[in-house]
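TICKET #2291
ISSUE: user wants both folds in one file
ATTACHMENT 1:
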Amino acid sequence: MALSPELRRMILRGASTAELQEQAVKDGMLTLRMDGIVKIRKGITTLEEVVKETAGG
């Protein structure tokens, strides 16, 4: 994950993990689950594997 100027500001002011994740996604980061969906579409993995590896996320 690249540290954008906005993320840096948010970290310095003590933003929550949820707020940081939301901003990181806005900045172009893919979550593990989002990346898994890309890989499902490319035929690299299965839905079951993505769900198993990203449970709780």
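ATTACHMENT 2:
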Amino acid sequence: MEQLWLPPAMERRLRGAAYSENTIGLSKAKVLMFSDMVLKIQPEAPWADREAAILEWLAGRIPAPELIEYEKCDGMSYLLMTRIYGRMACDDVLLEQPELLVARLAEALHMLWNVDISSCPVIRDMDTELAEARYRVENGMVEIERTEPETFGAGGFQSPEELLVWLENNKPPYDPVLSHGDFCLPNIFFTEEGIGGLIDLGDSGVGDRWRDIALCHRSLRHNVDGTFGRIRRGVNPDALFDALGVTPDKEKLRWYLLLDELF
């Protein structure tokens, strides 16, 4: 594998295999796509360890990548897993069938919420999320230029520090389920039969159901309102609430979207 260093055992496994690099998404990890495997390379970090742990636990519970090998070496982590197939939920074919897309997104969320979380090894509750958010704020890791235009500045918060304090002082009630943690359209795959699988599970664990709803609703909205370059008519993100059978909890939707601005 030209100009790519890997731990010896992993290098022997992948030697000579063709791959391409996946650049979709906002992750800073290097993601290499093989014919039947995916290799995620990133600096050592708690979320890399969490992803390996949650993949092990999820095996047989939901359609997700299976952990093949996880190694850490010289400050880097190497996560090798099986590849998920299907169309991303943001694929044109699905966005042009909004009723089907929304129904399948709701199906995927209900699948997560129906998993027994009693033995889940990863906790992503509000206090855990806020502790990580505080670390990011105190270490200057918040990228304001990537936040929603209304979050900071006139009419919004003056700084990430002010937003963090508001979040800490306004925690809504907690409703724990198995949460994906980043339930955005590029992380959900569908096949002709239904759910193909979920990827990018580094923030998964026991968390509030409304975090996933909030991020899914925003992702749907941004995929049709021109944020990513194309406006699509006939797609109503609010249809997600009807498909889920829930009444929009505006307090929780706002809290989790604001929390996500610090990540």
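RESOLUTION: both attachments delivered.
EXTRA DETAIL ON ATTACHMENT 2: The chain has two domains: 8-82, 87-260.
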